[in-house]
Amino acid sequence: MNKKLITYLLILLPIVVFYVFVFQNAFNIGWNDDWHGIEGFLASWMQQVTVSDKITLLFSQMCEHRILYVRLSTLLSYHLFGEVNYKTMMLMGVAYLLILPFVFYRVLREINVKLAYLIPIIFIIFNTQPIENIFWAITSLQPNTVIIFGLWGFSLLLFYQKKWAFYLANFLFFLAMFTNGNGMFAFIAAIPLIFYARTRSEKFQFLGILVFCFFLYFFDFKKPGIRPDVMINFTKYPHIILGDFFAFFGSPIDSTVQFYSINLKYTVAITAGVLMILWVVYQLFTFFYFWLKIKKQSISLEKTSILYQNIVKYPKFNLYLFASFVFVGLSGAAFAASRASQGLEQAFVSRYKTVSLILFIIIYLSVFNFIERKKWDKYLKISVIITILFSAFSYYESWDDVENRRKFFGTTILNWKNNGRYFYYAFANSRNPDDHAPISQYQKLPIPPYNYAGFVHGVMKYVNDILWISRVHFKNYTPPAEIDVLNKALYENQVIGSAEEDVKFIEGSNFFRIEITKAFVPFNTRFDGYYAIFTNKNNRLAFPLETQANKFSTFLSTQRFYNTRIDTIIAKPDLPIGEFKMQIGKLQDNQFKVIKEQIIKIQ
């Protein structure tokens, strides 16, 4: 087959497969921050009368961020579709990934290589590990796009000398900063590029823009109530900060795809992160070592290392890599410093993995400084094989998450529709009547900054207010039709199931524990699987009983790709007070097969 045709296929195939995967699995259901960050914003926007109040709302805080770009995207979606459409907004977020191949191809042109050298980058960019991007609209438009705006801006500053490129780059840095907090590091990382590639006038303009943006961001800035003081993290959890930093960058190499061992998971990720960071630091150290040696001892270039000679030979190529590393490095450091008290598991949260994956690309590109040019083709072939395997690994890892998130988000909206309220186990006093009582009259939402609405006292009432105002009063959200199909299947299409599964039900002081053995979840089904549903005269609530899948170690022990045992806990505060008929069963082919039924009381 023609080499050029193979190159185009290997570039286009992962992109097409990625967007088919996203389109099939993303659906018009919001989650968590979407409610106050998107629906809450839109409902509040409709209530503001003056232009001043609307601008204040656009730039107001949400947690430690100012999410101007998310809010503008929300308004665009609303005016295009007449409602919030979460699937469209998620697609908007991942669509920006299409910018990065053009950016990195321009970077590769600096070392004069063929288009084929872009293939490994494509397989890393269009990766499913940041799976929350297709289930959480605000995540797709926030931590995902901020990194893209920064990387695009570096390319404009370095490779295009026109005035429009300078101003567009600064606009992108502004958008990055007012999309997610770490976007401010784009301005910091761009400073070496400004000094190297831009005119004296542009240097002064950049300084003015930088000062203005930082002033605007921190003007009237309020510390979010949920976040611990960063200095406390430094004094109490310095070891976790360090572990978080390295695990953050090594997290895409997640050993739990095969083995359920937390210690192994942390060890593998931290080790991978350490090796990658050390590799980049080694190159920086080599450069500065020989640069100082040449400056002080006036040695010739030939007496330096091959690595240093290549760095000097391709200055723009390496300056771009340096700026990108500073950007992602500071982003990882800020993450580690702010999340240390929440433990190492935070480093594996999928919404942050777009940042981690960029370091993989930096590593791939930086190796060209180390190896001889005659070996570049061999390095390319090895890189293509590794990244194809990594891509397959990522799809394999993500599939489980996709299936379980479909069920969880579907039942979340189903429960809201059935009960006119949202139930969420957040804190000890979440059973307060004020938190769970559905509202019945119009109320005006405040203009943020919120004290991070998702976690403060009274959040249940606040979220209920948002959902009622935005969905009932303004009627700006229509749940997917499949939610009605799920509702009918669970509550109307009930049959007595076979006795294949064994169910064990244990009641604790504040929870129910459900164990199912001899279980089996069909492959590639949207909502099929095991559920526990609770019904009485006033309420109907459904909870999916998750099962882990796609583990090769599980297959070796059971000869099934899906576990044969489910062990799930349902918190009692997820249910209102009263007597319920609990039914545990399996949903398959639009029928709910009841395998256990029992009366329970919530007090």
From TrEMBL:
Keywords, sorted A to Z = Membrane, Transmembrane, Transmembrane helix
Which superkingdom, per the lineage? Bacteria
Regions that span the bilayer: 7-27, 89-108, 115-138, 144-160, 172-197, 203-219, 240-260, 266-292, 317-337, 349-367, 379-396
Q: What is this protein called?
A: Glycosyltransferase RgtA/B/C/D-like domain-containing protein
